[in-house]
Amino acid sequence: MANLSLKHIYKTYAGNVTAVKDFNLEIEDKEFIILVGPSGCGKTTTLRMIAGLEEITSGELLIGDRLVNDVAPKDRDIAMVFQNYALYPHMSVYDNMSFGLKLRKISKAEIDRRVKDAAKILDIEHLMDRKPKALSGGQRQRVAIGRAIVREPKVFLMDEPLSNLDAKLRVQMRTEISKLHKRLATTFVYVTHDQTEAMTMGTRIVVMKDGLVQQVGSPQFIYNYPVNIFVAGFIGSPQMNFIESRAMEKVGRVFIEFKGFILPLSHDRAQVVKEKGYVGKDIVIGIRPEDLYDDEIFLNGHPECIINAGVDVTELIGSETYLYLNISGVELTARVGAQSKAKPGDVISLSFDMSMVHIFDKETGQNIF
Ligand code: ATP
């Protein structure tokens, strides 16, 4: 079993930088876990502690049922793929892939079997005699993954493995790594700062900021139920729109007011706002670009949630259009159909799907739902 347990893990570097604070996570066998967050949030440090390349300041790390805090990297049954691939330049692909196994005194026949099996999976059989400098970025990446596969580890650790590849190859390798995960049926822990990679590859995502875990959940769950403004803004592209507003009550209904505009809240959301005491208070509302419409659409029985918005810029992205809008100085992005007729300078009727609005506490940034 390759389940991992991280219990109250802290990492303080010399010089008193606490890079990871009270990290708790149970990783199930065969999960594909993604650690995601902006630069410096502590994801690489966490991965390196799992690998044994960085000492754990306090807390416990278990692989299976074994406490491994003080176990050497080579005895942890893990393999790590680095961002820069870390291939030996003077060795052929075959030797790069077999080197680690030779050191472990595994028989020649067994090494040959493992290298050939991995090469087949990764479609690099024809490159076995080449040196790394004679390979493309994508091919080097495969060799680096191959070197990890031949070790037949219980856990794969990957630190931004796609960041040196061009955009097209990155998309292709993304799918290949997902397929590889299914095929190998082992636990993967993968670090990235790219929310698209996190959304598309992980079975669960761990969103980090300033050394602290913000939220753990499936990509879909985190997208639909972000716990705070940070997660809401980090996951999703184009990012969620945020509007500083005030909650108010009028003739029994709850409205959101900003810049003199008034939007009615849907019944369930209004209830929560009332119950949690936000009526009359400043709040931040969040609405995803796909929940804004460039037309007067009758949404959820609330035809009145329509506001005139000025169009600053339009971007046609193949199958859809991004509209960059302005409502009295509040900038919003809407993601609408490719057939949208809106053009810069127009004033459009913008419909808000109020059943999709998130409401955040202005002080704490927490989602109040
Ligand atoms: P990136 O995406 O930029 O790699 P990250 O989320 O992986 O960022 P870490 O590399 O884990 O972040 O760094 C977390 C914090 O710890 C940062 O503030 C960083 O400057 C600090 N840090 C990392 N390594 C060391 C070190 N060896 N000594 C001191 N501080 C360090």
From TrEMBL:
Keyword match Hydrolase: yes
InterPro entries registered for this protein in UniProt: AAA+_ATPase, ABC_transporter-like_ATP-bd, ABC_transporter-like_CS, ABC_transpr_MalK-like, ABC_transpr_MalK/UgpC-like, Mo/tungstate-bd_C_term_dom, NA-bd_OB-fold, OB_MalK-like
Assigned EC number: 3.6.3.-
Keyword entries, A-Z: ATP-binding, Hydrolase, Nucleotide-binding, Transport
A single cellular component GO annotation: ATP-binding cassette (ABC) transporter complex, substrate-binding subunit-containing
GO MF annotations, alphabetized: ABC-type transporter activity; ATP binding; ATP hydrolysis activity
Keyword Ribonucleoprotein found: no
Gene Ontology BP annotations: carbohydrate transport
Organism in which the protein naturally occurs: Oxobacter pfennigii
Residues in ABC transporter domain copies: 4-235
Protein name as catalogued: Trehalose import ATP-binding protein SugC
